[in-house]
Amino acid sequence: QVQLVESGGGSVQPGGSLRLSCAASGFNFRWYTMTWYRQAPGKERELLATISSGGGSTSYADSVKGRFTISRDNAKNTVYLQMNSLKPEDTAVYYCRTDYIDYWGQGTQVTVSS
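^ that's the sequence the OP posted. Answer follows.
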């Protein structure tokens, strides 16, 4: 069955960096666009970044453009989100998603606080 397992979250001070990973299984990962989302307490889920199946095309929400970078390794069935210059408002649970199926993993918590 499809699995998306996010990892790499944690607590970091403002201005710090984290690299999130999402390990995929149960489908042909290399064929599908992948997307990172986040959801902060009391807020709607927000689309952050998308990467095409081959990795040649990416897009970002204005809120993270210039600070976050999405990438993928199709040999490892993994998509990444490099997050730099983190702000307290980046605090949320982060999720990855595939176009293959309507499925949400458990997410990984990111907390940005001094």
